[in-house]
Amino acid sequence: MRARRHRWCPDLPYRAVLKAVRASALAALLFCTAAAAQSPAAPSATFRFSPEAGSALKALWQASAQAREERAACLGAIVRNDTVFVRSILPLPPESADSMAISATASIDRCGPPTWAGTVHTHVAAYDGERPFPKFSGQDRVAQRMWYDRWHADGVFCVIYSEQDAHCEADGVVGGIRRSRPYTLPESLPTR
After folding, report:
1. I want to staple 97 with a disulfide (CB 3.0 to 4.6 A). Which of 101, 125, 151, 161 is the partner?
2. Are 89 and 128 in contact (CB under 8 A)?
3. 57 Cα distance to chain centroid
């Protein structure tokens, strides 16, 4: 029997072509990986806490852990370049709260500019049976958006999930430059 080949397709060394394609793909992958490793990571904010703010956050966590309920506080901070300086904390009473003993509405209304830059709250409920959730929950993101809608300013938000650990984010810190200036409402709004 004769091997059937199409008369318009020359006899190519398929194995050699396949080997060359694999080598090219591997070289491209290695090049891209090396280039990605050399490019700088996306900028993120650095957080610095004053001794007073650090002590207040520790007290907030201890009160939360003892009550086994989440607690919230106003967070006073200033942003310079890519660094957030947290300078003051105002714990809020757990009133008008949801099932986690936090009222998003109360913290949004109380923790606005110019005195406050955002909010901090605790996570004490164990999500895996052992540890509290170390990031913002979906409900936390909704509260952050409500804060932004109320104050029309970039905010600073933290969640404390142990006596020594917190996760914080600052809106508007991009490569050391704020995207927008904070907007604060006037002391007295015009009435009709």
Report:
1. 101
2. no
3. 18
pLDDT category of residue 9 using cuts at 50, 70 and 90: low
Exposed / middle / buried, residue 133 (Cβ in 10 Å: 0-12, 13-18, 19+):
middle
Indicate the fold that domain 46-178 takes in CATH. Answer: Cytidine Deaminase; domain 2 (3.40.140)
- Amino acid identity, residue 157? F
Contact between 59 and 91 (Cβ < 8 Å): yes
Rounded CA-CA distance 75/143 in Å is 14
Look at residues 163, 67, 74 and name the one whose alpha carbon lies nearest to residue 120: 74
Is residue 147 within 8 A of residue 108, CB to CB? The reply is yes
Rounded to the nearest 5 degrees, what angle is found at the Cα of 138, between the Cα atoms of 137 and 142?
115
Q: CA-CA-CA-CA torsion for 72, 74, 76, 81, nearest 10 degrees?
A: 60
pLDDT tens-digit map of 55-104? 999 999 999 999 988 999 999 999 888 889 999 999 998 865 444 445 68
Hey, what amino acid is at 37?
A
Mean predicted lDDT score pLDDT of the chain: 75
Name residue, tokens 């099932």: 99
Express each pLDDT in 95-143 by its tens digit.
654 444 456 888 899 999 999 999 999 998 887 778 888 899 888 999 9
Segment (H or E) for 78: strand 72-80
